[in-house]
Write a structure and sequence with these properties.
Layout lengths: L5 E3 L1 H31 L7 H25 L1 E3 L15 E6 L4 E8 L10 E3 L3 H6 L7 E6 L2 E11 L1
Parallel strand pairs: 1-2, 4-5
Antiparallel strand pairs: 3-4, 3-7, 6-7
Helix pairs in contact: 1-2
Keywords: Coiled coil, DNA-binding, Elongation factor, Protein biosynthesis, Transcription, Transcription regulation
Family: Belongs to the GreA/GreB family.
GO molecular function, one term: translation elongation factor activity
Length: 158
């Protein structure tokens, strides 16, 4: 079975590595300490502190495996080579929503770097995928779960 590559910026890769380091080190130690303290309370069959700590331990170990897999399959994009002649992974695009006459700005990122609060959208999301390849001045109609949105591309930057 072929592993799926994960496109990511160097900044995104660094964040994943930092999270993995935190989980493997301080977080694992904290959970082990909580489990030990809960065991010291006696019977673990009805010990909610023990159950909570074991559940968190399972979650952390799962996240560690997930991060290790993502790092193994990571393909770092070189943001230095990105051009602004068309929308692509790593660019920031300013659009006008033609229905509401409002400007919006999106940073096109890989799926692991999505952050709606920062307007960072995935290149595989309907809007991200719909904008990729288009140029300033283009009008783009994109099918989204609630219907169709229509954007005019105003600018593309790094």
């Amino acid at each position: 079975m072929k592993e799926e590559r994960i496109v990511i910026s160097q900044e995104g890769l660094n964040k994943l590595k930092e999270e993995l380091q935190q989980l493997r080190g301080p977080k694992r130690k904290e959970i082990a300490k909580r489990i030990k303290e809960a065991r010291a309370l006696g019977d673990i069959s009805e010990n909610s502190e023990y159950d909570d700590a074991k559940n968190e331990q399972a979650f952390i170990e799962g996240r560690i495996r997930e991060l290790e897999q993502m790092l193994k399959n990571a393909e770092v994009i070189n943001t230095e080579n990105i051009t602004t002649d068309k929308v692509s992974l790593g660019t920031t695009v300013t659009v006008r929503d033609l229905e509401f006459d409002e400007e919006e700005e999106f940073k096109i990122v890989g799926p692991t770097e999505v952050d709606p609060d920062e307007n960072r959208i995935s290149n595989v999301s309907p809007i991200g995928n719909g904008l990729i390849g288009h140029k300033v001045g283009d009008t783009v109609e994109i099918e989204v779960p609630v219907g169709t949105v229509k954007f005019e591309i105003l600018s593309i930057t790094k």
